[in-house]
Each structure stands twice: as C-alpha cells, then as structure tokens.
Design goal:
This protein is of the alpha/beta class. The protein is built from 17 helices and 18 strands.
C-alpha cells in the first residue's frame, strides 16, 4: 500500500494506522507528496486554509474510493491535528476493508496509562467518553481498560518517590521460537559464554546495588527474565539469586519472579535453587497445549512436559505460578485455543497471561510468511479467554500492546486476587525506575512525579556484554547522575 503525506509530520501514526488494515503488505510512505495514485493508496494532507488548516484524507482501496475533510484553527495543538487526521483515515479504511479494529485509532503500547492520565485530568466519565468518541475505542475494550485500571490502582499506590525495581536478563534459550524478536541466544550456540556471563552479571548486580544505596532507593520488585532464565544450570541460578539477596535490601520487595518459561528446562534441582533463593513467583509458559502448533513455532517441548513441569513445581512448593498463552499462533484454531485454555485452567495456576501474536520483522515467522490466523480468529480466542478467566475468578491487572499484533489486539495479565506481579504493572505503567542488568537490558530512570525517563542501554548480545563490560559498569554511573539532578525529590531512606 502507498501512503502519501503532505504538509504534516505525522508519519509514524499514519503508517501505523494503515498497518492495522494492511498488516500483510509493505506500507510505502511518500513524504511531501500529494500526487495520489495507485490501486491501494491513501493521501493524508494538512494545508493552510484562510485563518485555519484544512485536513484532507483521500483513499482508493480496490473498488472503494473515499474522501473526507476537516478544518481546525491554525493555533490547534499538533496532537489534536494528528488525532483528527487519524480519525478521517481510520473511518475510510474501515469502510474500505469492512473491518473495525477494536482499539480504534489507538496504536500505542500503553492504553491503560493513557486512560489513567485522562481520568486524573477530567474524571472517569469524561475519560471514557474521550476513549469512545475521540479515539473510537469499542465499548468492550473501554470496559476492559477501566477494569484493568482499577485493579492496577492498588499496586501503583504502593510506589513511592524512592521506589525502584530490578530486572535481571538471562538472554539464553534452548531454541529460538519462530515468533521471537527478543535478543536471545540458543544455549547450543553460546554455552561457552554462559559461565563468564554469569560471573560478570554478578559484578554488574553488585555495582547496581551500590547505586541503589547511593541514591537512597528501595527495591519493590525483582524480575528475572530472558530468554529463559532456567536455561542455565541450577548452580548458576543459585549464584545469581545469592548475589541479589546479599547485595540488595529486599525487605520492601513484594516479589521475586523468575521466568521458567520453557517447560523442558524445568528440573527439580533448578526449582529447589529458585525456592532456596527466595523466589516467590515463576512462569511456566506452554504458549499452547497443541503438540502440532508447538512444532510449528519451533518449540522442542511437548504438552506432556508442560503438565509434568507444572506438577513438579507444585511438588517443590511453588505456590504462585503464571502460565503464558499466545492467541493467533500459526496452525491454531479457536477450538484449539479453547482446549489449551481449558487445559491450563484445570491446573489452577495463580495467573494466566494471554498474549496476541505479534509479527515482528526480525521474527522467523514473519520472514517465512507462515499463515497466521485472521484477525477475527485471534479476537474470538481473546473473547473466549476473557469469558472463561472471569468465570474462574481471575481479574485483569495489566494490559499492553505491541506493534504488528494480529487484529491490533492486546496482551493481558490475568490473576487470582493477591497474585499479581507488581513488576509487570510497574514496567508497563512506567511508575518508577527500573534498574536493568545483563545483555539486552535497558535501565529506565524515572523522575518522581513526572513522566521524564532516561534510558540507559546495555549491549544487546552476550558476547558484546562480555567484551565491553567495563563500559556497562561505567554506564551505571549515569543513574546516580540522574538522581543528583532530581533536586531532592527522592529522600534518603532511614
């Protein structure tokens, strides 16, 4: 599809809107161009018109041809001009394609954060109206957002100006999933790097703990992610957890989560290491309980291994287990997804996270052009998940979205009351500073009481992290520099 832009700089938003309707096509963007042509094309134009601005959108999709205008004062804020131009484009693409994306013109990652901001400014009733009428969000997604916002509120209220969370990256996996775009390496190819990686990661953790003390921060949650943390050995897990427990004051921490995502990496020895290391929550992530779909997405484990890993975790005393599922996997059906969710619910995990497949360009599934379910199929999967999880007493407690998601849908964390992962809420809401350690990790320093974020990136790949480790430590000093600029908004803990 061709997207013509003229007289404005809203490239990102207009392209993302086109991608909602044409996610299998490349969107060719032509800037400063009003020469509208092509069978699948859209022109978005902003130009002076007397004392104001004229907004024009013209589309041609198959046999459909549309044109609509709007007018705004020349003094109008750019965000409002962008929104109104987006509404014109959305309405025409909706008519041309015969589909209505449920999140309307919202393409951002954090719709619940936006809803909360609107609620704080205007009240909940007006915020809901803005979502419904200005952003064209469906009633169903509005209600889901409101419920999630209310459930998040308890956790958010516990964050204080001196709060922070710790993220520890273990970027190794048994195999690379076909849908994965994360920075991770297969153990088979990088096993020789792991001992040195763990050694240096412990050193970075010690440095980070010193930063926490110097800045007067308190740790609210700890999260080991990846990759697959349980891809490394039980001894290495013990070393890392021991370092975290020795170096950080965790007396205020409400969580220590370790992703044990791949069932085929879960052993009794590793579970014992996690339990003895103070782990309070783990994830065992089947993604699906269909062996055929597992084969398609490049996972080597089986459904039986998932069931065995879950029961082993229970036997080892793990009483807060999350399970991840993905709606929209290649070869999956609504009936297959229902069977997966019902099978997971029979295990009674404390939380279930339902993701929608995201077709990232770097993922093998995108490059291969594997047939993913249609948007309607993925939507039916999420509808079933919402009904069943609600019936079983789970509640949505965090929600986020990604680019290129099938059907422009969402990822939702569901949990039994009291079994939330605070880290998931804090990272998605950008509530407070996240101190991140390891390859591919990104520290986000948050100014208390403001939306300012300073991002400090580690090197992406394990070999870079190892080879340039002194630079990693030096970058951690920027955290202290940021807090020195906060003018006393963070108090020193007693």
């Amino acid at each position: 599809m061709k997207l013509f832009l003229y007289g404005h700089s809203f490239h990102y938003e207009m392209e993302n809107l086109c991608r909602l309707f044409f996610h299998r096509q490349k969107i060719e963007v032509l800037e400063d161009c009003r020469d509208f042509d092509g069978p699948d094309a859209a022109l978005t134009l902003v130009e002076p018109d007397g004392a104001g601005l004229r907004l024009l959108v013209r589309t041609r999709v198959g046999r459909y041809e549309g044109e609509a205008e709007d007018a705004v004062p020349a003094s109008e804020k750019p965000q409002e001009i962008e929104r109104r131009l987006a509404v014109l484009l959305f309405r025409q693409l909706e008519a041309a394609c015969g589909v209505r994306p449920r999140w309307g013109i919202l393409t951002g990652v954090r719709p619940v954060k936006l809803l909360r901001s609107l609620t704080e400014r205007f009240g909940e009733e007006e915020a809901a109206r803005v979502f419904r009428e200005d952003y064209l969000v469906t009633e169903e997604k509005l209600r889901l957002s409101l419920t999630t916002m209310h459930n998040e509120g308890v956790l958010l209220s516990r964050s204080r100006p001196e709060s922070c969370s710790l993220y520890v990256s273990i970027p190794f996996c048994p195999t690379r999933c076909a849908y994965c775009s994360f920075v991770s390496s297969t153990v088979e190819k990088t096993v020789r790097l792991i001992p040195r990686y763990v050694e240096l990661l412990c050193e970075e953790l010690r440095k980070t703990a010193q930063v926490v003390r110097d800045c007067g921060l308190r740790v609210e949650s700890v999260y080991f992610g990846g990759g697959t943390p349980t891809a490394i050995s039980a001894e290495q897990l013990s070393v890392l957890l021991g370092t975290v427990n020795r170096e950080f004051d965790l007396s205020h921490s409400r969580e220590l989560t370790v992703e044990a995502g791949r069932p085929d990496t879960v052993t009794r020895e590793k579970l014992e290491a996690l339990r003895q290391g103070g782990t309070t929550r783990i994830s065992i992530n089947p993604q699906t309980l269909s062996d055929e779909v597992l084969r398609r997405i490049g996972r080597r484990h089986t459904t039986q291994q998932t069931l065995d890993a879950f029961r082993l975790a229970r036997d080892c005393g793990m009483d807060n287990i999350n399970m991840d599922l993905i709606a929209g996997l290649p070869g999956d059906t609504v009936e297959g997804f229902r069977a997966t969710l019902d099978g997971v619910l029979a295990l009674a995990p404390e939380s279930v996270t339902v993701h929608t497949l995201s077709l990232k360009r770097s993922a093998q599934i995108f490059q291969d052009g594997a047939g993913e379910p249609e948007a309607e199929t993925a939507a039916a999967m999420l509808d079933y998940a919402q009904r069943r999880l609600t019936q079983e007493g789970y509640q949505p407690y965090y929600l986020y979205r990604q680019s290129r998601m099938v059907g422009n849908l969402e990822n939702i964390g569901w949990c039994k009351p009291g079994c939330e992962s605070p880290y998931n809420v804090y990272i998605m809401d950008e509530t407070h500073t996240i101190l991140a350690c390891g390859a591919g990790a990104a520290t986000k320093v948050k100014r208390p009481g403001a939306d300012d974020l300073e991002r400090i990136f580690n090197f992406k790949f394990p070999y870079e992290y190892i080879d340039r480790f002194q630079e990693v430590l030096e970058r951690k000093n920027r955290v202290k520099h940021c807090y020195d600029q906060f003018d006393g908004t963070v108090r020193t803990l007693p």
